[in-house]
């Protein structure tokens, strides 16, 4: 992976360098514990945040307007929930993250390693229930077969991925969850990053973007406070428009009080389905 220059001609600005430094202390196991266990991942509750996200993704992938071969997930972190529905539509799935620690966590699951930091079985079971189809073990096998690569990425570079790793036309679909706003020092950097990842998508391809609303920080581990660009719905819509996407749908979830567990100050979550012009 040979890094292309970052978008600021003078090199990474102090904002970007500080963000990158923050992430060196990111702890995948703690992050999974904070965000991907109950109450945030309570499959018996319709108002829990993870089932809401899985329902949005399920709906987006089963509407019949998305097709192709290759789905790329941008800033996967140590999580897999975001590609559980997509692997039924796209034969090839590429996961990406800035940190080797997160890529290593994903590789552990891929290789069936028992020491994974989170058991994804309830997630697989829940999505199978939404689909009313295959057994969860079949979905796990399908996903393991579909994931062809786990690559390094930097969304602040005009070419976030090594250009040789994707077909010249680009991916057919991009998914990105809680990445751009939590790695950008300000709204301008968020919008630039949205433009950078758009170059990885073919014209007419879809972007499914999930992110935090009104969030100014989150904990990426004990004492690892990471700044976030606080976004509103209007900013998300404007940034998408400015970077060459047509918005198909924006859905918003407001966090119930008991989902505010002290690991961040998020007030809501958005789900955007958009198409590259
Ligand atoms: C809040 S986590 C989101 C993880 C996962 N997608 C999820 O839904 O929970 C943000 C992720 O962005 C990654 N990241 C940090 N800097 C990045 C950069 N410059 N480019 C791409 N990803 C980056 C981090 O390693 C981390 O995995």
Automatic annotation (TrEMBL):
InterPro entries: NNMT_TEMT_trans, SAM-dependent_MTases_sf
Annotated keywords: Methyltransferase, S-adenosyl-L-methionine, Transferase
Gene3D superfamilies: Vaccinia Virus protein VP39
UniProt GO MF annotations: phenylethanolamine N-methyltransferase activity
Listed PROSITE patterns: SAM_MT_NNMT_PNMT_TEMT (PS51681)
BP term (GO), one: methylation
Residues given in the record as S-adenosyl-L-methionine binding sites: 31, 36, 75-76, 81, 97, 102, 154-155
GO cellular component: cytosol
KW Methyltransferase (keyword) present: yes
Family named by the database record: Belongs to the class I-like SAM-binding methyltransferase superfamily. NNMT/PNMT/TEMT family.
Name of protein: Phenylethanolamine N-methyltransferase
Lineage: Eukaryota, Metazoa, Chordata, Craniata, Vertebrata
